[in-house]
Specification:
There is one protein chain. With 258 residues, this protein is of the alpha/beta class. The chain folds into 2 domains: 158 residues, P-loop containing nucleotide triphosphate hydrolases (Rossmann fold, 3-Layer(aba) Sandwich), CATH 3.40.50.300; 83 residues. Helix content is 30%, strand content 27%. The chain has 9 helices and 11 strands. Strands 5-6-7-3-8-9 form a 6-stranded mixed beta sheet, sandwiched between helices. Strands 2-1-4 form a 3-stranded antiparallel beta sheet. Strands 10-11 form a two-stranded antiparallel sheet. β8 and β9 form a beta hairpin. The N and C termini lie far apart (38 Å).
Length: 258
């Protein structure tokens, strides 16, 4: 397998306290991973560091190498790392149409500017991605008129316009009902064939069967990293959340409750 991310000794501090402490992580091509942990554990911060939306303290031992390079032009890296998160959902609450939002991903922009040139093949690609997520009947609708589930699907279509080899999902299905969550899980599974997926979630049922690696975080640190079957146990979850947790598995889908 080819290493697409090598992160070593990442520390992030905000308001005088560490929100990410000594994070070390390697991600291999096709090595799908889920990150779970309590609120405030540092999960979203870790995703932001991977995507280079947040830069850790400049320590001598800090390393962040993506696709074999340590330095990137931000606009070029955005084409290689797709990010879907609740924060993006709010950002995309605009009057641009779904088609415009999806296609403008080619320019790492929200909509188009006067210097953007969009060809027939670009629109064709946008329409293909919109069909893939099942939004062809909403292609010309303003993003602001979409439901939460439709916005998530539109964001996935936008993210995949550039065929990014790395897809980061930060609570991508939050606020969705469980049928919509299942639909989104199936859609994400379809991307696992040709993407490396890293997923942050509070709902174990969102972890697609293709994910075989789970990382646990608590108090800004990575506390466990290993095979899904070995990491997702009641004993580990009880220790992680500090209370009794029950766990069940059905057809490869995990469910936890207290």
């Amino acid at each position: 397998m080819k290493t697409i991310l090598s992160l070593e000794h990442a520390y992030v501090r905000r308001d005088g306290r560490y929100i990410l402490t000594d994070a070390c992580l390697e991600i291999e091509k096709g090595g799908h991973m889920a990150i779970i942990g309590p609120n405030g554990a540092g999960k979203s911060t870790l995703i932001d560091v991977i995507a280079r939306n947040v830069y850790p303290l400049a320590r001598d031992e800090y390393v962040n190498e993506v696709f074999g390079e340590r330095r990137w032009i931000a606009s070029e890296l955005k084409k290689l790392i797709g990010v879907v998160s609740e924060r993006n959902a709010n950002f995309l609450d605009t009057n641009y149409t779904v088609r415009e939002i999806v296609c403008s991903a080619l320019f790492s922009s929200l909509g188009f500017d006067f210097h953007h040139k969009v060809g027939k093949e670009d629109w064709k690609k946008a329409d293909e991605e919109i069909r893939r997520v099942g939004l062809e009947n909403r292609a010309d609708s303003p993003m602001s008129t979409l439901s939460s589930g439709e916005k998530r699907r539109a964001m996935l279509a936008r993210t995949n316009m550039t065929n990014p080899p790395l897809l980061l999902l930060d609570e991508a299905s939050s606020a969705l009902d469980f049928p919509s969550r299942a639909d989104l899980r199936n859609l994400i599974s379809s991307y696992a064939k040709d993407r490396t997926i890293v997923m942050v979630t509070h709902e174990l049922s969102e972890i697609i069967p293709e994910i075989d690696r789970v990382l646990l975080m608590k108090d800004s640190r990575i506390v466990m990293d290993g095979k899904k079957k070995e990491v997702l146990t009641e004993a580990n979850l009880c220790e992680l959340y500090g209370r009794k947790v029950f766990l069940s598995v059905n057809d490869g889908i995990y469910t936890a409750w207290c």
